[in-house]
């Protein structure tokens, strides 16, 4: 996928417990002919990486996969350091 190619959807998820669901969602959406960005193979886990922002900007839709405890780390970050 080129850096300027338009996307139909960007899928965001918590890697620790949402990657299987996000991958399944990607397969189903792509099977209907849509172009989808999913960072499983492209980005390292951990702190937020700003590289996907270009892909978010190119996408018509943003799909957020909220799995159990997906927001725990964010909610417990009192200093907003992560």
Automatic annotation (TrEMBL):
Q: Can you supply a Gene Ontology BP term from the record?
A: response to axon injury
What's the main place this protein lives? Answer: cytoplasm
**Where in or outside the cell is it found?**
Cytoplasm
Chain ranges of the TIR domain: 5-82
GO terms (molecular function) for this protein are: NAD+ nucleosidase activity; signaling adaptor activity
Record's keyword terms, sorted: Cytoplasm, Repeat
* Domain of life per record: Eukaryota
Name the InterPro entries on file. Answer: SARM1 (IPR039184), TIR_dom (IPR000157), Toll_tir_struct_dom_sf (IPR035897)
Q: Which GO terms describe its cellular component?
A: cytoplasm; dendrite
Q: What is this protein called?
A: TIR domain-containing protein
Species: Dibothriocephalus latus (Fish tapeworm)
Organism lineage reads as: Eukaryota, Metazoa, Spiralia, Lophotrochozoa, Platyhelminthes
